[in-house]
């Protein structure tokens, strides 16, 4: 296993190009299975999770080639309906294969995703959606088995105890494209990744309306064809670099980002004293100031402050003078990064799903343990400003979601390198 070593104290300056969105590319790659024809997906980030998804598609029988950021998928007529446990078990997002397999083959078997460090990660809303189409669901030997003689469109309410579900919305939307009749998804997720997926489905010949709102309507069609699609930029990666500029009092130009996908973060960072300058359709200048002001954040479903930027924002709060409060409403246990940040001298205490962060003058570099994708990013951000070196162990978590992170940070002036454990 590798570890990342970060030497703190460098102000980040320069340009960083944002990669394609992992959480858009994954369901879109799964959606290619809805047809036997070839699809070409551009701006696909080269990440571990993408490699896992490509392995699964190949194992199901699809022909898949990857050339830089372009992935070509030709599912063909014969694809299997059972996704292999050995790959599915390492990536929870594999659950989004259920929708396309059930839609195209009227049967699907995917191992039940386990929980992970950020929470229980149930899939009851996904299964409720499939049952609404008339599918029979069985959970046997740790696998979800879904099958249907026929899939009939239905009105489906997908709201859960923590609001809408992104991948449940994606799964139901994909399955609905080949169901008979009209499906209405109420309390659908509004994330930009859902809009991106809907655009790809419509390019394949589907009839999806309302993506981006809480009510999505899909009119089923007989067949879909292949399509060419460019994945949207990764708003979580973009947000992570915005925080990197804020925490190092840097001056960073983000290229190929969509600022309006980060309105909640930009609003909060502006309140803290960070300045933003729009330099064109997809270019944004982010300038951190010396004296930041404390802020309070609550994570909720899009367009509110995203849970996937909670850990990164907390890293900034650790060195923001005053009392900062961050409440996590999507995954109430998503706080594994607190103990690691406190090892670096931060002052954070947790009351339920609310963390109170008292800003400190300096963090000190220390060996720390990454626990999940976004917590690892928070540790890198803290390491950028800590005194001395920070060693981040189990950095494979980071490689799941951040393309060429050292290269991008080094080009911004950071002192960061990878070492064998
Ligand atoms: C997506 O996961 C993202 N992953 C997550 O990003 C992100 O944190 C999450 O959305 C919330 O924004 C991908 O897109 C691959 P949810 P997803 O279903 O769809 C509860 C990252 O770091 N829920 O929107 O699985 C659930 O427990 C990852 O890139 C149910 O109760 O999340 C949570 O509290 C981490 N029943 C809330 O809804 C269900 O059937 C939102 O979960 C499904 C979810």
Q: Concise description?
A:
The chain is α+β, with helices and mostly antiparallel strands. It is built from 14 helices and 23 strands.
Keyword list:
globular, binds ligand EPZ, 14 helices, 2 domains, 31% helix, four-stranded mixed sheet, UDP-n-acetylglucosamine1-carboxyvinyl-transferase, Chain, alpha+beta, 25% strand, 421 residues
What percentage of residues falls in helices of 4 or more residues? 25-40%
CATH architecture of the largest domain: Alpha-beta prism
Termini, distance in Å? 6 Å
Quaternary class: single chain
**What is the overall silhouette?**
globular
Number of helices: 14
As laid out across the biggest beta sheet, the strand order is: 21-22-1-23
Structural class: alpha+beta
Q: What is the arithmetic mean of pLDDT?
A: 96
- Overall strand count: 23
CATH topology of the largest domain: UDP-n-acetylglucosamine1-carboxyvinyl-transferase, Chain
What is the CATH level 1 assignment of the largest domain?
Alpha Beta
Bound molecules: ligand EPZ
- CATH level-4 homologous superfamily of the largest domain: Enolpyruvate transferase domain
